[in-house]
Write a structure and sequence with these properties.
By secondary structure, this protein is an alpha+beta fold. The chain contains three helices and two strands, in the order αββαα.
């Protein structure tokens, strides 16, 4: 058994190669298949070196807060931007928005 924080550290390391300093729980979202619960956390990376597991992820990139804010502003105007932002029903949308607009994390 592992804690939420341990699971976040393990998953991030396995899929991106990034080591995590700290983890903060943010929120959860029911996930219908297979009767699961998605848990959203914010994490602080120890460094920016990425080593992607291509069987798990197709892309891993770092974005600045300014890039994310510009993307949300473009999305609100119905304009295109350089990368995909998840829709507002996704927990990822709320995590990204919280990080960009409400934290100094």
């Amino acid at each position: 058994a592992e804690s939420i924080e341990e699971a976040v550290r393990r998953e991030v390391k396995e899929e991106s190669g990034v080591d995590i300093k700290s983890v903060i729980y943010h929120s959860s979202q029911p996930w219908p298949y297979p009767h699961s619960l998605m848990i959203g956390c914010l994490a602080e990376a120890q460094d920016t070196q990425i080593s992607i597991d291509e069987e798990e992820l197709s892309d891993v990139r770092w974005f600045s807060r300014e890039e994310i804010i510009r993307a949300f502003e473009a999305q609100a105007k119905g304009e295109s931007h350089d990368f995909y932002l998840p829709g507002s029903i996704a927990i990822a949308h709320h995590l990204i928005k919280y990080w960009a607009f409400e934290t100094n994390y």
